[in-house]
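Deliverable D2.4 — example input (structure tokens):
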């Protein structure tokens, strides 16, 4: 293990027990992409890392780098997304966003754009003024664009209504701060959903458990 520590901006995507008292976490970091870290004693009552090493925790993490994993020794959490955690449906959307981000994230590859997108999307889920489905589809489109896996010529697709093409253009090109600031009718939203669902299934060769849970919840 190296003698010096590093500090990374990141968000906890996953957390699981490790050993009797430790916790294994997967972090999406700005500087090094997706990494695995162990938080020693994080499951002990009163441990300083207990609250910092759970999903949705966003901030700076101080770690030591080992051969195959990192050890998290401290964290300064900027945002816990507490409001999201108390909203069951919102938390399910958030869990899906993190699983979707995890799919595209790579190890040792800078992921600032993905981290920023995930952060603003989770903040948007906490706002009652923005429909969750709008946040979801804008997040999906933008992350696939960032990954270089999106047919940007969709904005010229004559089989889509003009309003749908305009919405896709907005989701592809808008600054993150304005990503969710578009409005469409329920009919156009259904058209966007149908097309994006088909594109996601075409380009992504796996299903997402969190999405299955979310869709089942919304049906019931």
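Example output (designed residues):
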């Amino acid at each position: 293990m190296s003698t010096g520590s590093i500090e990374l901006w990141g968000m906890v995507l996953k957390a699981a027990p490790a050993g009797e008292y430790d916790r294994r976490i997967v972090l999406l970091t700005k500087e090094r992409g997706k990494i695995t870290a162990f938080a020693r004693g994080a499951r002990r009552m009163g441990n300083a890392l207990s609250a910092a090493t759970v999903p949705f925790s966003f901030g700076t993490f101080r770690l030591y780098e080992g051969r195959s994993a990192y050890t998290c020794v401290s964290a300064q959490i900027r945002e816990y997304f507490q409001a999201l955690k108390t909203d069951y449906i919102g938390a399910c959307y958030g869990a899906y966003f993190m699983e979707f981000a995890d799919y595209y994230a790579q190890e040792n590859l800078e992921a600032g754009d993905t981290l920023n997108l995930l952060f603003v999307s989770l903040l948007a889920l906490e706002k009652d003024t923005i429909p969750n489905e709008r946040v979801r589809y804008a997040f999906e489109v933008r992350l696939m664009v960032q990954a270089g896996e999106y047919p940007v010529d969709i904005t010229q697709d004559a089989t889509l209504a003009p309003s749908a093409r305009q919405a896709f253009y907005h989701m592809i090109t808008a600054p993150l701060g304005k990503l969710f600031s578009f409005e469409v009718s329920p009919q156009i939203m259904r058209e966007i959903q149908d097309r994006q669902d088909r594109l996601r299934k075409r380009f992504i060769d796996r299903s997402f458990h969190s999405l299955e849970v979310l869709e089942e919840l919304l049906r019931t």
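The longest strand covers residues 5-18.
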